[in-house]
Amino acid sequence: MVFTSRRRLLTAAGLGALGLAWPRRLRADGDAERKFLFVFCPGGWDVCSAFAPIFNDTTDHHAGDVAAEVGGFQITDGAARPSVRGFFERWGSSTCLINGVQIPSVAHDVCTRLTMTGVANDGLDDWASIVAGTSTADRILPNVHLSGPIYPHKHVGASVRVGMAGQLARLVKGDALIRSDVSVPPVSFERDALEEAWVRTRVDRWAATAGRGEPARLALAEQLAGERAARLQTQAEALEGAAIDLYNTIGYAVRSLAAGLARSGIVAYGQGANGLWDTHSGNGQQEGLFETLFDALSRTLDDLASQPGELAPTLLDETTVVVLSEMGRTPQLNAAEGKDHWTWTSALLIGAGVAGGRTVGAWTEGITGEPVDLASGEAHASGVTLGPGHLGATLLRLAGLDPAEHLDPSLGTPIVGALEDG
Questions:
Q1: What 3-state class would DSSP assign to 287?
Q2: Which of 46, 100, 255, 334 is deepest in the core (most CB within 10 A)?
Q3: 204 shares its domain with 256
Q4: Over the stretch 127-146, which tens digit does the pLDDT of each residue have?
Q5: Helix (H, G, I), strand (E, B), or coil: what is residue 134?
Q6: pLDDT at 140
Q7: What's the domain range around 178?
Q8: pTM recorded for the entire structure
Q9: 135 close to 310: Cβ distance less than 8 angstroms
Q10: SS3 for 344?
Q11: Domain end among 214, 242, 270
């Protein structure tokens, strides 16, 4: 294969700089594997604003809030958050709400790592990186990281930090090499020749199996390179100059999944020092955050349901959406009309493989989690306290993996009651 333009040369160099190699196979055998979209809310959301409709002398809610049953779910309903109600009305049948997950810390960085890896220390990959890193399909951006926490360890090469500041666009154009403050050696044709040999080897194998001649081999090599460069360029142009809000940001990840570029993607909503959800004062801000979050989720699910999947009827049929925060907030307001860190939280699983229309776990009157029977997902005195390892093991099971190969079972096993296939 010979590169015929500066853009294509720089594209190849840029991909190499990110640790992205040429395709591992000519045809993806893993196209049927489930995709994942993570939406992370940093800072700690107030479960009383949506997921814990417990009204008593020890809990504080927003003015006018009421307990309501919507779509079979018990939620906190408020006039300032109509999208929360709207979400459960429209998408409750595709949603599993997991209540009473204990995150045993009140430090943001520790809780975030626990939530995303199951452990507080470095050494285990985050769930999205594992999902992407074990993909058997040919993905240019296995885990497309727009924002939010990722902790790649074993699967470092699986996560690509696309960013929302034009990084991918500059990479594809070649500007990233010019703007970098790190010395970048010129691209050598020796390296180009090595890449050409790499592709030729794989094309030759295909040609030998199919009984094709030299023209077919060269045509296929050129086609493979051109198609992948074009798809990445299209994605880069979509990122450039677009309005950046939660729905649009999630949309970039959705397009990456739809195009077969990625198996997983992660987006954070509410950035800042510790995240806009960290409402130690003025807890009323949680209302607007939940409204924006659930409005974006509903619109995203509409998009997923309206697009064809790679093999399934729709993209939603092959995508699991995971929505979570690293901690909750205290049931009661503090002196600053805010709420402080709380070790109990909720999570949402939506879409493919999920037991929809179901709530796993339950809240006590003090907004702590009840023990849960993992087989049924129901609160039970002889059950276990849900932790981040149980959530992670459930995600790995949804990804078609054996959780025990990636996570010590002592940290948690799958919540079978949250799975469609039980």
A1: helix
A2: 46
A3: no
A4: 999 999 999 888 888 999 99
A5: coil
A6: 86
A7: 1-30+166-242
A8: 0.79
A9: no
A10: strand
A11: 242
